[in-house]
Amino acid sequence: MINSKSDYLRYLKQDKLALGKKYKSPKLVHDEIWRFEILLRKTEYYVNCKRTFIGKLYGKVLQFLYYKKRLKYNTYIPLNVFGPGLSIAHFGAIVVNGNAKVGENCRIQDSVTIGATNGESYAPVIGNNVFIGSGARIIGKINIANDIAIGSNAVVVKSFNESGVTIGGVPAKKISDNNSHSNLNKCLELDK
Q: Could you count the other beta carbons within 10 Å of the beta carbon of residue 2?
């Protein structure tokens, strides 16, 4: 969670690396995802850190702008869920519960759900360096260890505490000993 200006700058830098961007700022076209992530981090910074009247007011404006972008892109990512190094591969039908917690360097594809069941407040806790394939569903009070790759269309309803494996299927089970690193940007510094 962003709790200071240095955290904010670190999150921005790590997100840029995760997205594989080598230039200084987003281009006018073709960098919509990067601009979306910058708005997410800026909103988190103002909501979490700015306590003055003007800071709180600007935070509300940012929340409204972020809400509009979430609707436009059909990408429902609440504030303070993802750690630094978020990489959204494609917009579209991404729904994340506000109680979920996702670690550093997560690459998330389209049509992914990370949520709770039957109105529960418990949501998944996902470790660092996790790849989530298109159409995956991660549901309930579960834990996902570090360095896991979750296959496309997997339905994950139980915890996976073994690091560095690939899971997939309905319901999800371990399908290989391959970790997630080949699915994450090579610019990231991952513990090998």
A: 24
The model's pTM: 0.92
pLDDT digits 0-9 by tens, 56-89: 999 999 999 999 999 999 999 999 999 999 999 9
115 plus 54 within the same structural domain: no
pLDDT at 189: 67
Query: Which of 28, 51, 74 is the last residue before a domain boundary?
Result: 74
What is the total count of domains within the chain?
Answer: 2
Report which residue type is found at 120.
E
Residue 120 neighbours by CB under 8 Å, 6+ apart:
140, 141
Helix (H, G, I), strand (E, B) or coil at 25: coil
Choose among 12, 135, 44, 154: nearest CA to 144: 154
> Measuring CA to CA, which residue among 161, 159, 109, 172 is closest to residue 135?
109
CA dihedral 16, 144, 171, 158 (to 10 degrees): -150
Count the Cβ atoms, other than its own, within 10 Å of residue 105.
Answer: 29
Residue 166 burial by Cβ neighbours in a 10 Å radius (0-12, 13-18, 19+): buried
pLDDT, tens digit, 9 for 90 and up, residues 84-126: 999 999 998 999 999 999 999 999 999 999 999 887 889 999 9
